[in-house]
Amino acid sequence: MSRTTRIERYRNIGIMAHIDAGKTTLTERILYFTGRIHAMGEVHTGSTEMDWMVQEKLRGITITSAATTATWKPMRGPFAGLSHRINILDTPGHVDFTIEVERSLRVLDGAVAVFDASQGVEPQSETVWHQADRHGVPRIAFLNKMDKVGADFAMCLHSIRQRLDANPVPVQLPIGAGPEFRGLIDLLRMRAFFFDEETGESSEPREIPEPLRAEAETLRLRLIEACAEVESTLLQKYVEGRLEDITEEELELALRTGTLQRQLVPVLCGAAFKNKGVRTLLDGIINYLPAPSDVTRASRDEEPLCALVFKLMHDKAVGSIVFLRVYSGTLRTGMTVLNTRQQRRERVGRLMFMHANKREEVDEVHAGDICAALNLRGVRTGDTLCALEAPVVLETLHFPEPVIQLAVEARSRTDQQKMEEGLTRLAAEDPSLRVEVDPETGQQLLSGMGELHLEIVVDRLRTEYGVEASVGQPKVAWRETLRQRVRQEYSHIRQTGGPGQYAQVVMEVGPAPRGSGLVFVDETQGGVIPKEFIPAIE
Ligand code: GDP
């Protein structure tokens, strides 16, 4: 595959995980290895490159879907030696921010699902996995924290198969686990690589250690079988017993095809924190995940411009930043485009790629690109921008109903003005936030996806807009509607915790778990009241 087009060398990916699986650490290591940042910050000390906002630093939770651009040349596989652009859309792991995941999934082409190797599949990874299924996003899995006591490769594979109903296909086997995690066996090449304990660098390829040979051979056979189901030439060789004729390249390409068709999920592993397995994961991102041109909503340069606004952020220095995914055509600075949903024209100001440590200003961006635009004033999340002569509306983003409501009252008239201005801006950035005035009390009512979500809104009003306000108790929004929905739509509720308590639940429609969260088990009213629950339903 020597000649590839520009778009074929793009990977627009998300990294998705349950909170604490190591998504932030992994993202940061990826940015480090792709050469964009040179000092690795530690998570939870507030110096992580992807976490932009103060709240994230304080809470150690990644909230925004910041898009970051990096470059990588894979060492092995069909694209070896070719420079690729990876746009990473950061997706939050907290249940309150599932909406952010939803909007990232709308614009990315592939994803890395990160699991804590000692935990296997956790509730939020399940929710996000099913969201990704709905959006048809091809995935690879990364079993992180292989260095942690209790890390269990086989348990993780089993839990991915059972709980996610997926077809995990290991392409690596860890050498040891927990404190004994010392290297990786590459099951395509049947070679062992050992880590340097200090740097996490891999050794030159070596013979597979004898005690692991049988297991590696079994897993390789499984890998071949999974690939044979995808590629008929491999199937023929497999059926005829010509396993030694099967080449590394054939397996790589079959794995790619199987991933793109969502028939299988290549599984890699490592310990991001110790830099172990990050480089092979980067190779895996390029080798297995789709380019924009591989997915049905194909990107083309030669067609008229069409782009989707998927995120708005406010930056003190430059004002409003609009994140865009270009699907076709070229967007240039100074160009006038049509915002079809708002029925207005917009003049495009500055365009830039956001790297981890710098912003790169450019004159134009093309199909497949994810970029940031400044000074687009009337734009809201979910809007389509297109060429004046070819108006289209892209399928917009889907936002569920808010579940929690909070009353906020400004301390003074000045605070009231600042609050109105702040809320207008925050609601434009975040379509899952609803703002209305209580007709009886005149208080502002904020409705959102959970208590943490609204807490952060109130925090931002205070820190970014200087609003002093008193805040009421959070209440369940749309209580009746939700209660009915739970009764009607969830045929089965598995719950822990008794009446009068908050309980963690997994709710199911038929056999597949479709979401999870907190409910209040209310005996007197004979049912459950969702508290912080994000249903994974259309
Ligand atoms: P996120 O919530 O998914 O973004 O997870 P973080 O990246 O914030 O990581 C959660 C915790 O796990 C932090 O304390 C990390 O230092 C730790 N962690 C991340 N990667 C690893 C790893 O590979 N091994 C071990 N032992 N800990 C890790």
UniProtKB/TrEMBL annotation:
GTP binds at residues 17-24, 90-94, 144-147. The keyword Protein biosynthesis applies. It is found in: Cytoplasm. GO terms for molecular function: translation elongation factor activity. Residues 8-293 form the Tr-type G domain. Catalyzes the GTP-dependent ribosomal translocation step during translation elongation. During this step, the ribosome changes from the pre-translocational (PRE) to the post-translocational (POST) state as the newly formed A-site-bound peptidyl-tRNA and P-site-bound deacylated tRNA move to the P and E sites, respectively. Catalyzes the coordinated movement of the two tRNA molecules, the mRNA and conformational changes in the ribosome. This is Elongation factor G. The lineage of its organism: Bacteria, Pseudomonadati, Myxococcota, Myxococcia, Myxococcales.
